[in-house]
Amino acid sequence: xxxxxLSQTLLRDKQExxxxxxxxxxxxxxxxxxxxxxxxxFYTRIDQVFILWGLICAGIFITxxxxxxxxxxxxxxxxxxxxxxxxxxxxxxxxxxxxxxxR
Length: 103
Prior knowledge:
Elements: H1 20-23, E1 27-33, E2 36-43, H2 45-66, H3 71-99
Helix pairs in contact: 2-3
């Protein structure tokens, strides 16, 4: 028994045939500069939650490591941002959780 199945690639494109719970709240990005395609992709609500938490964690880390902000102010700011992130996560995933009968 292997930990990672070697027959499947680790990174691959997302499937284009999405279920109804994935289509609800789908975010499509198609950024172009003239004829040059900068970024193109689509993100389900679950993807959006992971991106949101990644940005929150990056902000917390960068502030704590590189900016001269007091620990007291950081604790208040990041507590508020974590609360906002938690509420956003609940809003973004509520439909998916309902369809999958995970509530």
